[in-house]
Design brief:
Blueprint lengths: L4 H5 L5 E5 L4 H12 L3 E6 L2 H14 L6 E5 L5 H14 L5 E4 L14 H29 L2 E5 L22 H20 L6 E7 L5 H4 L2 H8 L14 H8 L10 E4 L7
Parallel strand pairs: 1-2, 1-4, 2-3, 4-5, 5-6, 6-7
Helix pairs in contact: 2-3, 2-9, 4-5, 5-6
Length: about 270
């Protein structure tokens, strides 16, 4: 007998890790998983913010799920090792890993140097490798799911006419790292498939943080670049996250879902 859509989308009894889960977009991802019934582990360098956000999200569920907030620096191998131990102290294994953590500077081609370039590659690409390696035994046991958060700039180039000046710069390291994430996603989808692990990517389009949204001229330029003529809001990601992390997407692996208002069709 076929399953209902409600059954396919249910994550009841599963446990998910979301790196950067207390951030602007990470919060919407965390809310999505909780709404579908998953326990969540939020990971962030900002422990206080992470704990507060985790409590809010779990409270909104009426206490139907468990939440855990842990400090994690994805750039440090020792921090990842401590994080793994802390997760296993509460949950025997995990079912879903969302590699979402990101931070970086608004460098231009002229301003970026070796240090910032290497930081961005470490943060956006190498951290995905390290977290996936760390939780591979769990995901193999649970026949789980990996969702890597990439970017439309992993497969298209930024329009230099939009990103004028350092305030709105698009760093060259960002798109290069995200392109690596997309290829790594395809690699993992192939080589982890014998273990029943699905691996997909989600590529957001223009989702500027609230402080940036105060600059009307820049928002107009971003909005005009896509057919829907608007920037993205965090809730716009929820449908794709639900699909890719649940059994509703159980025949999907190695894919990159663009949530960009149609930007990349032009």
């Amino acid at each position: 007998m076929s399953k209902s859509l409600h059954e396919l989308l249910s994550l009841k009894g599963r446990t998910a890790i979301i790196t950067g889960g207390a951030g602007y977009l990470g919060t919407a991802m965390s809310e999505t998983l909780v709404e579908l019934g998953a326990n969540i582990v939020l990971a962030s360098r900002d422990q206080a913010k992470c704990a507060s956000r985790c409590e809010e999200i779990v409270r909104a569920s009426g206490g139907a799920v468990r939440g855990l907030a842990l400090e994690l620096d994805v750039l440090q191998k020792d921090s990842i090792a401590r994080f793994v131990d802390a997760v296993h102290a509460q949950f025997p294994a995990i079912d879903i890993l969302i590699n979402n953590a990101w931070s970086g500077k608004k460098n231009t081609w002229e301003s970026i140097g070796d240090q910032d370039w290497e930081y961005d590659i470490q943060m956006s690409l190498n951290s995905v490798f390290r977290m996936t390696k760390a939780f591979f035994p769990d995901l193999k046991q649970s026949r789980g799911v990996i969702l890597n958060i990439a970017s439309m700039y992993g497969h298209i180039g930024p329009d230099y006419r939009i990103y004028d000046g350092e305030r709105f710069a698009n760093p060259p390291s960002y798109g290069a790292a995200k392109a690596g994430v997309l290829q790594f996603t395809r690699y993992l989808a192939s080589f982890l498939s014998p273990h029943g692990i699905r691996v997909n990517a989600l590529s957001p389009g223009a989702f500027p943080h609230p402080p940036t949204q105060k600059f009307g001229d820049f928002m107009e330029r971003l909005s005009a670049k896509n057919p829907l003529n608007r920037i993205g809001q965090p809730d716009d990601l929820k449908g794709a996250v639900a699909l890719l992390c649940s059994d509703a997407g159980c025949y999907m692996t190695g894919q990159n879902i663009c949530v960009d208002g149609g930007w990349t069709i032009w």
